Amino acid sequence: MQQITHAQDINATPKQIWAVLVDVTRLPDWAYQNGRVPYPVEGRYGTEQTEGVGTVWVGVTKNGGLATQKVTVWEPYHTLAFELQPSEEAALPLSQINLLQLESLGDKTRVTWRLDWEAETGFSLTSVMLMFAGNSIFEEMIAGSLANLKRLIEADDFEIP
User: How far apart are CA 74 and CA 153, in angstroms?
Assistant: First the structure.
């Protein structure tokens, strides 16, 4: 399994950042949109549950694809983990575990995002691309998303939850 880790310091409390991270409807507000991975234009809940372990998030991408994530760790204001759910519609079967940790640094919070990923076996143009460029593709997505999250939360017109 491949692993990528990126951190971003944000001028906000862990509670304020947590409120944005766990509201899947806000995902399009901060997801990176300039990369090589289809980005979400809509975030919605996959079940009635909207909080805690077992919550299901569905991201609808610009190209109409669906990415379903299931929350596996929910420690408010500290740790959030979610795992990509298998889908028959996926262009490439992919195992992906995301771990976000929030660390208070006084007047700011360090958000660290670790992604563990692995392409399932098989041969396709997408699988070859991921073999050679996967880490850079996902690093770009994570770094860009964290930078967007910082801009969103630190904006003058941001309503602090």
Answer: 21
